[in-house]
Design a protein that fits this description.
With 174 residues, this protein is α+β, with helices and mostly antiparallel strands. Helix content is 18%, strand content 43%. The mean pLDDT is 95.
């Protein structure tokens, strides 16, 4: 059953998001005014080391007033390739420069309301280059055992949808 989009009208637009209302026709002929959010794609990385530890940031998210572990991730800038954006985000947010990045998984974290897509890469090494250039992004930067990911999820310390999907997938692939 495919829903037919008949039209979209902008409700609010700024450099970060585009909120719209769509006239959507359901397979049975009914129409819905469905809200949707269009955003630029994002890129991030699961960075591991030779001891099977993963590079994580501990940060506060003001929207949900919660703290949690996340992988470094951010917006892909105009003209930037996803792998380049992932490398830039890791370096800016952690102070570590990832090694060779290989595609790991693509995540659409909120596809019922948004077209957001996150390109997640994997690097199996990184070089420390200094403090994060965007120190406001994280309270702490730490290497944690990849095997701790299920425990962090269970304790509610890893709740970001993209980070959770990427790290749980990494457990099966890395």
């Amino acid at each position: 059953m495919r829903w037919q989009i008949n039209s979209e009208e902008p409700l609010y637009t700024d450099p970060w998001l585009d909120i719209r209302v769509a006239d959507v026709e359901l397979p049975d002929g009914r129409h819905l005014d469905h809200r949707l959010i269009r955003t630029a794609p994002g890129a991030g990385a699961v960075v591991t080391d030779e001891r099977r530890r993963v590079l994580l940031i501990w940060r506060h998210r003001f929207i949900t007033d919660s703290w949690g572990w996340e992988i470094p991730i951010g917006k892909i800038e105009d003209g930037e390739e996803p792998a380049g954006a992932a490398a830039r985000e890791v370096e800016e947010e952690t102070g570590w420069r990832p090694g060779l990045l290989r595609p790991l998984v693509k995540v659409q974290p909120t596809n019922g309301i948004s077209d957001s897509v996150h390109h997640i890469f994997h690097a199996d090494n990184a070089t420390y280059i200094g403090p994060p250039t965007e120190g406001w992004e994280a309270e702490r930067v730490e290497w944690a055992p990849l095997s701790d990911v299920p425990r962090l999820v269970g304790k509610g310390e890893l709740v970001s949808g993209t980070s959770m999907a990427a790290l749980l997938y990494a457990l099966t692939e890395i």
